[in-house]
Amino acid sequence: MFDDLHGHHARLSETRITDLFAADPRRAQVFRAQAGDVLFDYSKTCLDAPARAALLALCDSARLAEKRAAMFRGDRLNSTEGRAVLHTALRNLDGGPVEVDGADVMPAILDTLSAMEVFSDAVRDGRHDGAGGAITDVVNIGIGGSDLGPAMATAALAPYHDGPRCHFVSNVDGAHIADTLRPLDPARTLIIVASKTFTTIETMTNARTARAWMRDGGGDPVRQIAAVSTAPDKTTAFGIPDTQVFGFADWVGGRYSVWGPIGLPVMLAVGGAAFRAFLRGAQAMDVHFQSAGWADNLPVMLALHGIWHHQICGYPTRAVLPYDQRLNQLPAYLQQLEMESNGKGVAVTGEALPQPAGPVIWGAAGTNGQHAFYQLIHQGQQVIPCEFLLAAQGHEDDLAHHHRLLVANCLAQSEALMRGQDLAAARAKIQDRYDDAELERQARHRVFPGNRPSTTLIYPQLTPFTLGQIIAAYEHRVFVEGAIMNINSYDQWGVELGKELATALGPIVDGAQDAKTKDGSTRALVDYVLKHRS
Ligand code: F6P
Question: Among 7, 170, 205, 528, which one is least packed by beta carbons within 10 Å?
């Protein structure tokens, strides 16, 4: 399926991106896609028009339009679990009905959103208080999709916070919950136990620890613990009153769930109106994704770049580099979204994939990375496509000079990656300091190969609406890449084996059961733990 594209890759192997700009003065205006006022600039990649046309042809050969309609229509695309994939319904604020098994799911979604808002307003204005007075702090206990989305979005929207402080506990390592709870008042803290299944061992262990902390510290667990889950029987068994339980359906995947009740901490932090703006941004991206032609379709072009750089060029990783400090959790969020969705080895049919389906996603906020791993990005031998994100404007009006520096640094990085610096230029910069062989030696350390691809997602400002647009664009990118590779992006069987083995190892690590059934390494490590545990 990718033969044609491999041909384009070979044809372009000697082409420099700077040559493409020289040959086409309008390249920056043409090699871009825009959704609302979010702009995806992909002109600093080695794609030319014929290669792009070949990539775009994938959309039709993969029957993308048909698959996209099937997703929005509620077909059971998650074929190993027999589930629809309808996170888009959670933000379908003014769209039409969405049917699952013949029943419109929108009334229940909108009712839950209103119930969240009623609860959130009551907590925010102090009517729903704790045993010691108005709630000052919220601790969300969840992991994976029940943590990364709300944690990322809450941090991203810091300028809009006017509610209680929100904290996130995910790791079963007692250090996480201990450090989080230590400074908090158990009588003025609200705990949200967020778990789609309400069985996840990390979350349930942390939830029980938090409940004991609250009870021992004079809090009221009945009033001060809320839950978000698809399993109301289990939330009831945990002792959480129904009025403090916010449900959703199993056709919302964990990593796609921030738009519904899993977003409750975001709503508590920023309020119902800002949360709705976040949903509206995502809905606007849904409309764009469903209506724009392939070449103008921002999520589609994001996805085609993913395919080009990973499947065709063979670059094993992609760096996500937000020049927006408040998006510093975006790389971790995207690691789950992309790698748990598309890190698969078989197609929908069960047949082995002919090539790896998903790259390793990593990254950190700019400019921090510049003083750490950018060395390798610029001069290391492996090529790492870089995905920059940048707001035209920050929120700190009194610190506008900071933002100008931030913008200059972001643009400088993509320029440096593209242009590089040859030996002659490196030599010229230091020729007054060194001579002869030492000049040559020193200059070689200062060569940048350049021609390294990067893209930039640029937006006016990181508002709730814009954040919704960005996150929905990434979700649809995952969908498009999965559709082209014909994989199920919505299950995650790869996480199960480790869970099973951890359960079996529990009694062994407790010292209650012998490790003799385990391999030599595991036995030796268990031995070490047992010997060193005081
Ligand atoms: O183990 C993986 C996973 O199932 C993720 O897909 C999910 O987001 C996370 O665990 C948490 O699951 P839950 O919300 O059911 O606790």
Answer: 528
